[in-house]
Each structure stands twice: as structure tokens, then as C-alpha cells.
């Protein structure tokens, strides 16, 4: 099956009338019934997922404490005593006025005494402090938008992200949760670099990859039925982004059975990270490497610009977000029916205020113009959501047909960077499961949906009052 056969607008080939079983279901189902249907519905892949943003708030605490097994102990800041010496030392450069900043014990031990008194061992938090700590890693208040996300969340998590074992466990927990939602493929941004041993010394990229591989090989991970591939990502506006890019190409190329692509992340309204900055470096890298794909965040920005054009020119086969494609008529026309896919993140875009409500989101326009699109979760831990929520928003806000739901899932496999033979197996599995699901639902209705209760989270509860399904 070729890509263009999948990316065409389904509405043009089939007549959807109000008698269609799915149209009838939507017309009569309660929101909870629709959610149950979408949770049980077989799905393809999640192609846009940052592992460190995919940690649900109620996972963090136990995960952090469990790192003791690998020698890690964490401290978190519970008060501010105005003791920062803003002199020229290593600690003066760390963010100071930030509660619930997390440090490894080896870093904590080096703090000046006054600052040490501001931190507490994570396991010694009072119930109230623990509740505050858990809240602090969620983006759940109306005033918390883009700045809170980009500038505070990651700095607060800080050294919790230094343990590769924690990341490996987050990976497993996502595989399990996504598998329960009927997802069969996860292409996730898992950086190979940036990890440290409990004593503060660096863990090499190859050592970190070995830890991830070992976790993926465990029986419980395999039992999820979710096939996993990684992307390595670079921070596009960092002063050393070109060096990061070279290191990323190297790591992906050397671990190509697990790592399939390089991504570029970081807010696009920081103009230090504009796409054309990387033209020269990428051209040099392409002289040497023959097996690295690119999926790049582009068009996740309010202003019209040429970031998506430039990013395709850079060699990206998939675009993350692509919100401002809607402002570029020429490119919009060229992108109809492929070959590039836009990774759509409906919940992320709303919560980070790239759209103020869903009537402004370009997703239905892309979908119905025949531009290949798939739904993905971006940073679901931060939004307190799952992949079902993305489908729920899409159906509720844009009246998706059954054919469109099938198309989105097939696209999420067809445009993945997994090896061709495995891709075909995944597509076959998906098609078989989707056909079975449709048959079963048409004969038994809601009563025939999987017995296990769907798990829902805060986003759909707060916004659509679909709560407590677990
Ligand atoms: Zn992203």
C-alpha cells in the first residue's frame, strides 16, 4: 500500500450519510459512551511524544523514590530563605526562586548550608508538601500557559531527569498505558545524552541506550504489544545546537535498529533556533550519514512565517504541529495528498495557547484537504491526558467520520520511520483489529465494548466532564 493511497481525502471516495452506523452512534451516544468507544478502538501509533513530558503527575513521586534501587536520592526545594549568594560560583547560575526544584543528593551535598536548609528529601515531604510537589509538575491552572511550560516545568524537574532508569521506567509505563488504549506503535523522543550517575559523573550515551534496551527487552514491556522506536532530539536555540545535531546523527546512525530519526525541539518564537540555521550542518551530515530520518517541530508559532517550507527543505519528512501552515496558501496547496505528514497535537496546542479555541485549529482543514495528518500526544504528562483524549477532542470538535478515524490511525503507521517490513506487519495488525472492532460494535453496540474500564485523566474531565471512568 503506498502513502498516497492512504493520504487521500476519504470523504471524496465514500458517501457518508446519516444512516452510517458511526454517524448514528455519534448522534445518540453520551460523551462517556463516545469516550468508551474511542478508548476501546484500535489505534495505530503516537508519532510525537516527548518521554520526559509523558510522565503523568501521579507517576512522578513513586518513580522518583524508586530510583533508590539504582543509588539515586532526590531533594526538593520546599522553602526559600533568601540565602542565595549571587557571587560568581556554580550555584549562582541555577534558578533560585523556584519551589519544588529537584536535585540529586550529590548536588544537594555541594550546596551552601543556608540553601541546604531550603530542600527536603523527597520521601520526607508532609502530605501537604507532597500534594504541592505533584501539582507543581502538572500544567493544570488557567494561568499556566506557554511560559510556565517552556520556562518553569523543565527547570523544576531538573535533576529528576538525570536518571536513565527513571526514563526507562516511564517508557514502560507509557507502553503499558498506550497498549491498554489499543495503540501498537510508539515513536518517542528519548534523548541518549544528558544522564548522570548518583555521584554526579556522566553516563555515556551508549551506556544510557543499553539501559533503555534492557528495559525494552523485559517480559512486561514485550507483553504490552507496543512496538517502540526512538528519536533523538536537539534543543534548536541552544548555542551549541550544531554540535548537538552532529552528536544526534551519530547516535541515531549507530543505534539504527532502535533510533530512527532526529528531531529539533524548543520554542520557535526564540529566533536563535530558526530552521535555516542548520542548513550547512545538515548538508555536511548528509555527506556522511545514509540512514538518519528527520521529523522536526515547525509552525508551532503564532506568526505567519516560512519555517515549514524551510524545514522541508532541510530534509524533514514529518512536521511537528504545523499550525501556521494555514497561513501559507502556496505550501498548503503543494502539501495536499502528501508526501509529508503533519503531526497534530490538539491538546498541546490549546493548552499552550497556539489556538484560543478549537474553532481556530487548522486540523480539520488539513485533514479534509487531503494533507496527511495523524494525532499525537506531545507532552501528555503535562496535560494530564492520553491518546484517546486526542481522538475524543477530534470527534467532538470536528465531527470525524469512521473513515477519517481509520485514516488517522493508518497514517500514524504509514508515515512512521519504522523499518518497512515491520511497518507492513503493524498495518496488517491494525487493519485486522479495526475490522474486528467494527464488526463487533455493529453487532453488539456499546455493551460489547471491552469489559475493562477505560482510564481517563484530567483534561477531558475538566473540559468535557468525562470523569471517573476508571
Ligand atoms: Zn513536541
UniProtKB/TrEMBL annotation:
Cited Gene3D superfamilies: Metal-dependent hydrolases
Transmembrane regions listed in the UniProt entry: none
GO biological process, one term: inosine biosynthetic process
A matching Pfam family: A_deaminase
A GO molecular-function annotation: metal ion binding
Cofactor(s) required, per the database record: Zn(2+)
Keywords: Hydrolase, Metal-binding
Residue span(s) of domain Adenosine deaminase: 143-429
Keyword Metal-binding set for record: yes
Protein name from the UniProt record: Adenosine deaminase
Species per Swiss-Prot/TrEMBL record: Cellvibrio mixtus
Amino acid at each position: 500500500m503506498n502513502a498516497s493511497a492512504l493520504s487521500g481525502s476519504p470523504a471524496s471516495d465514500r458517501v457518508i450519510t446519516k444512516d452510517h452506523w458511526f454517524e448514528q452512534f455519534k448522534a445518540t451516544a453520551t460523551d462517556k459512551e463516545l469516550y468508551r468507544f474511542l478508548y476501546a478502538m484500535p489505534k495505530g501509533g503516537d508519532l510525537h511524544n516527548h518521554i520526559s513530558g509523558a510522565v503523568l503527575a501521579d507517576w512522578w513521586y513513586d518513580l522518583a523514590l524508586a530510583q533508590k534501587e539504582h543509588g539515586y536520592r532526590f531533594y526538593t526545594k520546599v522553602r526559600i530563605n533568601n540565602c542565595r549568594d549571587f557571587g560568581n560560583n556554580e550555584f549562582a547560575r541555577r534558578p533560585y526562586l523556584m519551589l519544588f526544584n529537584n536535585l540529586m543528593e550529590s548536588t544537594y551535598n555541594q550546596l551552601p548550608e543556608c540553601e541546604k536548609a531550603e530542600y527536603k528529601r523527597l520521601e520526607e515531604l508532609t502530605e501537604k508538601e507532597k500534594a504541592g510537589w505533584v501539582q507543581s509538575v502538572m500544567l493544570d491552572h488557567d494561568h499556566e500557559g506557554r511560559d510556565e511550560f517552556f520556562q518553569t516545568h523543565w527547570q523544576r524537574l531538573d535533576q529528576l531527569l538525570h536518571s536513565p532508569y527513571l526514563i526507562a521506567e516511564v517508557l514502560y509505563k507509557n507502553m503499558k498505558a498506550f497498549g491498554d488504549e489499543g495503540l501498537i506503535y510508539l515513536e518517542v523522543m528519548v534523548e541518549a545524552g544528558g544522564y548522570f550517575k548518583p555521584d554526579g559523573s556522566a553516563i555515556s550515551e551508549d551506556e544510557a541506550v543499553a539501559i533503555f534496551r534492557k528495559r525494552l527487552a523485559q517480559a512486561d514491556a514485550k507483553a504490552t504489544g507496543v512496538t517502540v522506536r526512538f528519536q533523538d532530539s536537539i534543543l534548536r536555540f541552544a548555542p551549541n545546537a550544531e554540535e548537538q545535531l552532529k552528536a544526534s546523527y551519530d547516535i541515531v546512525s549507530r543505534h539504527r535498529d532502535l533510533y530512527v530519526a532526529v528531531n529539533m525541539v524548543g520554542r520557535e518564537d526564540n529566533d536563535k533556533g530558526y530552521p535555516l540555521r542548520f542548513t550547512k550542518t545538515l548538508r555536511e551530515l548528509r555527506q556522511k550519514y545514509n540512514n538518519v530520518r528527520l521529523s522536526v517541530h515547525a509552525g508551532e508559532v503564532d506568526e505567519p512565517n516560512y519555517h515549514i517550507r524551510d524545514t522541508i527543505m532541510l530534509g524533514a519528512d514529518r512536521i511537528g504541529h504545523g499550525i501556521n501552515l494555514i497561513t501559507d496558501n502556496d505550501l498548503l496547496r503543494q502539501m495536499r495528498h502528501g508526501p509529508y505528514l503533519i503531526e497534530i497535537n490538539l491538546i498541546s496546542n490549546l493548552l499552550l495557547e497556539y489556538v484560543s479555541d478549537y474553532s481556530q485549529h487548522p486540523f480539520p482543514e488539513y485533514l479534509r484537504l487531503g494533507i496527511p495528518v495523524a494525532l499525537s500526544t506531545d507532552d501528555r504528562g503535562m496535560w494530564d491526558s492520553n491518546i484517546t483524549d486526542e481522538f475524543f477532542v477530534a470527534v467532538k470538535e470536528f465531527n470525524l467520520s469512521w473513515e477519517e478515524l481509520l485514516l488517522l490511525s493508518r497514517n500514524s503507521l504509514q508515515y512512521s520511520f519504522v523499518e518497512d517490513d515491520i511497518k507492513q506487519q503493524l498495518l496488517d495488525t491494525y487493519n485486522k483489529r479495526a475490522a474486528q472492532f467494527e464488526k463487533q460494535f455493529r453487532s453488539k453496540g456499546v455493551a460489547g465494548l471491552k469489559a475493562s474500564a477505560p482510564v481517563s485523566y484530567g483534561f477531558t474531565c475538566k473540559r468535557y466532564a468525562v470523569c471517573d471512568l476508571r
